[in-house]
Structure formats: C-alpha cells, structure tokens
Amino acid sequence: MATILAIESSCDETSVAIIRNGKLLSNAVATQIAMHRKYGGVMPEIASRLHNENIVIVLNEALKEAKINLDDVDAIAVTRGPGLIGALHVGLQAAKTLSLIYNIPLIPVHHLAGHIYAGEFVARFKYPLLSLVVSGGNTELVYMEKHLDFKIIGETKDDAIGECFDKVARTLGLPYPGGLPIDQHAKLGKHTYKLPTPLHGKGYDFSYSGLKTSVINIVNQEKMKKHKININDMCRSFEDTAVDMVVEKTIKAAKDYNVKQIVLAGGVSANSYLRSEVIRKLKNSGIDLVLPPIWCTTDNAAMIAKIGEHLYKEKLFAKLDLGVDPNWKIDKYRVF
Ligand code: KG4
Predict the structure, then answer these.
(1) What average pLDDT score do residues 296-300 get?
(2) pLDDT band of 221, cuts 50, 70, 90
(3) Which atom belonging to ligand 1 lies closest to the Cα atom of 136?
(4) Distances from the Cα of 200 to the Cα of 142, 212, 238, 245, angstroms
C-alpha cells in the first residue's frame, strides 16, 4: 500500500493532493485567480510570491483532510514543468525538502501528462489513444500507443487556445479567465462575425494568434465607427471558430491513427461546445470518449497524484539536484 503526496504549482493554483491505492484522500487548492484578474492575466512574479505564501497552508490542509501525517507518505510527486519558472520552483523546492527530510523518493511529473491522466478518475484508458490537451498554455494532440508513452503529433505554432479565449475575453471586457464567460455568452448568441481559420485542413498543427488578432481588429474597427459589438454574437462566432479547429483535427487524427479512445484534457476541456461537438462527431464511430470531470479540468494536484502513482510503480524517481523545466516537452518525458 503506497501513499503519494503530490504538489502542483506550475501557474496560478497552489495545490497538494494525497492518493492511496487509487483512492484520492484529499485535493487542497488555493487559487490566485482573484489576484491576477485585475491584470487580465497571470503576473508571474505575483504568482511565485503567492505560491510561497500558500504552499505550507495548502500542504497542512491536504494532510488534515486525508487524516494522515507526513510520516505516512511513501513518495512525493511534483510538477516539474512545463509552466512558469518561478512558480514551478516553489513546488519543487517544497517537494525536495520533504523528500530529503522523510527520506522518500521524489517523482517528477509532466504537467500535461497529469492533465491527460485526470481522465483516469472516470474511465479506464484503452490504447492506442489520442489526447487533445487544451489549456491556458498548451494546445497539443498527443498520441499514446501504450501507457506512459507520449508522442506529440500536432501542436500550436503560436498562441494556446486557452490564452486566445483569455485575450479575446479581455478585448470584449469580460473577466479573467475568459473561457467560462465566453462559453456562457456564446450560448446566447448567433454566429454572425466572419473569422479566419488558419491551418484549416493542413496537418494536425494549430494556430490561434490570427484568430485573436482578427477579433481585436473587428472590435477596434467597430469602436471607430461608434458601433456597438454584440458580445453574445462575437462569443458565439469566436467559440465556434476556435473549437471547430481543434475538433476537426482531433477527429481526423483519431481516424488516421486508428485509436480506440479520445481523451480530452486541460482547462479548455471544460468548454460546453467542445464537449458536445466531440460527443456528436464520435457518435457511431466506435471510438470511445473520456471527458475529465469538470473539477479536474483546471490545475490541481489530484491529477499529479494520479499519474504519480503509476510513476511510483515504474520507479521513475529523480535525484535531489533536479531542476524545473519550464519548457519540458511531453515526449521527452523520461529525461530529467
Ligand atoms: O489547465 P488550466 O487550468 O491551466 C493551464 O494549465 O494552462 O487552463 C486554464 C484555461 C484558461 O485559459 C481558461 O480560460 C480556460 O482554461 N477555460 C475555458 C473554460 N473554462 C476554463 N476555456 C473555454 N471554455 C471554458 N468553459
């Protein structure tokens, strides 16, 4: 029986979770969203400082909720990258300190691999599978021929889809993070604005900066003409365009690679239109769909604990001179 304590601090959530034999005992999360909201995005310096302030509080909360002591923990799993460098350092230093004091293994975890394995809270993975990882910092199609084997077959050439949702929301005067407000306004609107679909029909890569710029240009032009933007219609038009791009490529790649399952992962996988479109397109396709539970779509340590258990079994441990890797690629995942 192994008890794993997991730490996540890659962006603006400080989180500690404890898992024992597949059973999640706790998942404490301190979110910094309210602090970053006034800047319309995450301020890296502030994020690091808040992780420092919150990490011990969140650790104690997770231990209390799990009703265990640090002596009961068999290994520490921690997000080592990708993410904000200063933010990652806080989690890794905490993890190394615990590993040293309690003489237990340190397990480095790739943040996006954590997002993918969040799906295991609700389903059993069937290989080969394809994961669409869509978050604030990443947009990737990851092919997994087998367990813990990751190959990037498509990725964004510029902005991430979540970043695009957040910037478009800011342009429209909606709060940060922009994904949920856009999702809600889109439900009330019609697709009336014509927006570009870069890289449409070309391979599995994505591009979001042109779409973002196009929305900004339309908003500015309308302002100059003293016209009012119809927020609901712009949200509908933008969401359709942004989501259709990932759905089209995901379905094509799933068929080309003959996968048994598609796993949605990351913060943007909470999007209601994305979920309904993938469900609709996969009807009668014979391909299974795994949708992560909404509570596990945004950053949290439960997903780090989930994959941490697998890595513990594989003994993928690191030495205490481990550093963070803000640009760690998921296919270089065993290299640390
Ligand atoms: O996975 P996550 O918590 O952070 C990263 O690891 O990047 O994802 C956060 C992103 C934000 O960009 C947020 O706007 C987006 O997920 N998001 C959504 C929705 N809920 C959150 N995007 C679209 N629709 C949503 N319902």
Answers:
(1) 95
(2) very high
(3) 7
(4) 19, 16, 15, 7
Rounded mean pLDDT of the chain?
A: 96
Give the list of residues 6+ apart from residue 170 with CB closer than 8 angstroms, or none.
Answer: 40, 41, 176, 178
Cα 118 from Cα 131, distance rounded (Å): 11
Q: Is the pTM of this model over 0.85?
A: yes
Ligand 1 centre distance from Cα of residue 315 (Å):
32
Residues 77, 127: Cα–Cα separation, whole Å: 25
Q: At what angle do helices 209-224 and 161-171 cross, to 10 degrees?
A: 10
Quote the percentage of the chain above a pLDDT of 90.
Answer: 93
Within 6 Å (CB) of ligand 1, which residues are found?
11, 135-137, 162, 165-166, 177-180, 183, 266-268, 270-271, 298-299
DSSP state of 202: S
